[in-house]
Amino acid sequence: MCNLYSLTKGQAAIREMARAMVDHTGNLPPLAGIFPDYPAPIVRNGAEGRELSLARWGMPSPVFALKGRKTDPGVTNVRNVASPHWRRWLGLESRCVVPFTSFSEYETLPGGEKRPVWFALDDDRPLAFFAGIWTRWTSVRKVKEGETTNDLFAFLTCEANAEVGAIHPKAMPVILTQADEIETWLTAPTKDALQLQRPLPGGALKIVARGERHDG
User: Fold this and answer.
1) Between the CA atoms of 93, 97, 103 and 107, what dihedral angle is there, to the nearest 10 degrees?
2) CB-based burial label for 83 (10 Å; 0-12, 13-18, 19+)
3) What integer pLDDT is reported at residue 28 of this predicted model?
4) How many C-alpha atoms does 149 have within 13 Å on its Cβ side?
5) Cα–Cα distances in Å, from 67 out to 36, 80, 94, 143?
6) pTM of the predicted model, to two decimals?
7) Rounded CA gap, 18 and 107, in Å?
8) Rounded CA gap, 133 and 197, in Å?
9) Start-to-end CA span in the chain (Å)
């Protein structure tokens, strides 16, 4: 399960590749380590057209997961899109793409210690996108914050490909590398868009770093 990723490409590159016409992110710095519940950029369909905006990482948790809890930190990765909880956010108005340049999965070392292994399309860490969903939601994310209303996002996962599976066999993020894939995710009927919930081919990713909590 991917709970840490990096974005080191600038806003202009994100807007160009995702064809975003509106930018609400202000002066967006490089983000070498994005963790759950952090604000991060997403591209979505907005009232003024396709927009680049900030949202907190972690969609609302299912009701059963909140029993006995006072807060909902959110769900970062979504696999079972047939679940009624997630199905309500698969329409065009709730789909988004999440820009990244590398992402990490934790490997377990012989002594039981876990360390992040960073994956990217190649050593230059080119821009790519996760296929995501978003919503505006009122909840208690942290006790000290109390009830707040936030734009929230998560991204889809799928079976791991060869490179990711060697480290984390259970799953990998759904990754979009081409402009036409981004267009399909943001504009196509749900049935067609979900055809993109598949692993990248073997050889499409490369390990670019190990052991750091962030990746430049």
Assistant:
1) 40
2) exposed
3) 93
4) 1
5) 21, 20, 26, 16
6) 0.95
7) 32
8) 13
9) 21
Average pLDDT, the chain: 95
Residue 39 CA, distance from chain mean position: 12
pLDDT at residue 89 is higher than 80: yes
What local confidence, expressed as pLDDT, does residue 111 receive? 86
Calpha distance 135→59 (Å, rounded): 7
Q: How many helices (H) and strands (E) does the chain have?
A: 5, 14
DSSP category for residue 75: B
CA dihedral (201, 202, 207, 213) positive or negative: positive
The label of the residue with tokens 């992402």 reads 103
According to DSSP, the residues that pair with 149 across neighbouring strands are: 138
Give the three-state DSSP class for 6.
Answer: strand
- Amino acid at site 140: V
With 80 as the cut, is the pLDDT of residue 214 above it?
no
Q: Which of 85, 84, 83 is nearest to 74 (CA)?
A: 85
